[in-house]
Each structure stands twice: as C-alpha cells, then as structure tokens.
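Supplementary Note 3. Input sequence used for the single-chain structure prediction.
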Amino acid sequence: MIVRVVLTLVLGMAALALLAVSPVAALAVGVVAVAACIWAMGGLARHDGWAARLAVPLLFGVLLLWLWEMVTVGFGVPRILLPPPSMIGHAFAANIPTLIADFQQTVIRSVIPGYILGCGAGFLTAVAIDRSPFLQRGLLPLGSLISAMPIVGIAPIMVMWFGFDWQSKAAVIVVMTFFPMLVNTLAGLQAAGAMELDLMRSYAAGYGQTLMKLRLPAALPFVFNALKLNSTLALIGAIVAEFFGTPIVGMGFRISTEVARMNVDVVWATIAVAAVVGSAFYGIISVIERGATFWHPSFRK
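The predicted structure, written as discrete structure tokens, is reproduced below.
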C-alpha cells in the first residue's frame, strides 16, 4: 500500500516538473499519476484502520490540489482569476504574521465568544420552552423570525450598536447560532421513547430527574448536530460581519482589502486558513461527540 502512495507522489511531482518543459509529456505522466492515485485510494479504502481512513481524504485532497496546479499552470489561467496552489502557498508563507493576527481577531476574539453565547442561549431557551407551553408558543416563532433575518442586514446594525471591535461580530454570531441550537435541542428533548418515560413515571421521578437522567442524554446527538452546524456558521458570520466595519485586522477585513488591491493570492491564503480552522473546529466537536455519545447506535459497528 505504501508503494502505491509513493508511486503516486513520484508521478505527480514528475508531471509538475515536466509541465514547463513539455506539456504533452506532462499530460501523459499526469494521466498515469491520476490512475495511480485512484488505484492507491481504492486499496486504502478497503482497510478499516484509522491510518487508512485518514490517508484516503488526505490523498484525495492532494489530488485536487495537484489537478488545480496542473490546470492553472498548464492552460495559463490568469493569476487574477485563479492563482495556482504554489502561488497561494508562497503568499501564505510571506504573510504568516498577518494571518496569525487575523486569526486571533476573528476566531479567538469573535467566533469563540459568540459561539459559546449563542449555543448556550439557544440550549437554555430550549429547556425553558420545553418546560413552559406559554414560552413555546411565544418564543419559538420569534426565534424562527430572527433566524430568517439576513446577515448582511444584521451586521451593520450590530456594528452601530456594539462598535467596530469584536463585540459586534460576536453579536452577529449569537444571532446566527441561536436558532439552530434551539430547534435541535427541542427536537432532542422530544426524542425520549414512551417506554422510557413511562418507566421514569413508575419510579415517581419528577421533571428534573427525568430531564437530567433521560431526556437530556437522549437529546445529546441533536445538541451535537447543532454544535457542528454552528461551528461553520459562526466562522462565516464573523468573516461576513467584518466586511461592514472592523479594526484593521481580521479575516473578513483582509479578504475585502486584498481583493481591492488585486492581491488574489493573499485572499486565497486567507480563505485557506478559514477553511482549515473551520474543519478543525468541526473535527474537535466531532471527537467530543464521539466520547459523549458512544452509546448511540450511529457509533456502533
């Protein structure tokens, strides 16, 4: 299996090296490299180990980047339209301090506080609505109304209310993450089976005991679905909100500024950082979910 992967990488590097010398030869080697990559991924997909499960998406990602490089360089695509990955990588290496500062402003100072506040508020509101039919009739339609509000309309208002710093971005994230958590938690609280509820009643369990020992554990898969969904929504919300006012730092500010300067490679480098951060955030929530809901049928083999 290792031989297949090594052969794929060698053929891919050879095709890139031949691209500037002989496009026809590069194309021929490239076809063989793609076939070798598919062959390697097919062999890895038949294994159940964690290394094989990790290697297949990594190899597929490398294949996509390699095809991107081959197409943009081989066909002479204008850099302003789509720069090759090598150019984006160079821009990333040349702007590491700037990208770190943008990461700190957008993710650390805006996404994480807004994510915690929005998900926490949605969860607590769902528990309160579940307890009170009056709140269910009053707050649930209001939450649906808030979720339907466009982010491009909310962001400027939040900037006027909370200023240009991270507070306005966190407020936008709270609005975006509140309703998904509310709806999923309510659905999870209703997921407990009738037999289990009857058993709790036969033990004379009160509302609090039933909630803590039966209904909240049954709602955990739904809660984690909302957490994973909100992990990407929060990052998108922060980046979009920064288009409408922010200090001279942040991923959204960097994208809007560098697009105006025609520095498309820096824009793509920022997008790459955002994609990696979003994927890592989602992956962390998934790992926590696996540990907290290991008993759920979806994790059983």
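The CA atoms of residues 204 and 210 lie 10 Å apart. The chain has a mean pLDDT of 80.
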